[in-house]
Design goal:
Length: about 120
């Protein structure tokens, strides 16, 4: 197997892992919200805003991705990848990490997934 094929396989596996993690997090959030109906959404929200100090604490690869997303506003992994010059699957992974950290929101419209900075 050539290096390119190995990299593509790894990126495909990372995408599958991200999808599974997203489902686990979604189920966990659903169960948590279901068990705590008396808690308001704001009290139940664990997200963090992406201010300058937060950006400085992020690893370089996530900071680059977050900065590109700031420039675009709402964007797909493809459009972020165009700015950062990285593979779409890599940016998808980084964006999903930012989602799990609570800094970015993720919305699915049809077959497309859009990311936007969480501006609480």
């Amino acid at each position: 197997m050539c290096d390119t094929a190995k990299i593509e396989l790894i990126l495909k596996n990372l995408d599958e892992i991200n999808e599974k993690l997203d489902k686990i997090i979604e189920n966990n959030n659903h169960n948590h919200n279901h068990n705590n109906n008396d808690i308001s959404e704001k009290e139940d929200d664990h997200g963090h805003t992406l201010d300058v100090m937060t950006l400085l604490t992020l690893p370089e690869h996530l900071r680059t991705t977050a900065t590109a997303l700031f420039e675009l506003g709402t964007a797909t992994a493809d459009s972020v990848a165009e700015i950062t010059k990285k593979e779409r699957a890599v940016e998808s992974n980084y964006l999903n990490q930012l989602v799990r950290m609570g800094h970015v929101k993720k919305q699915r419209l049809g077959r497309k997934v859009y990311f936007l900075v969480d501006d609480k």
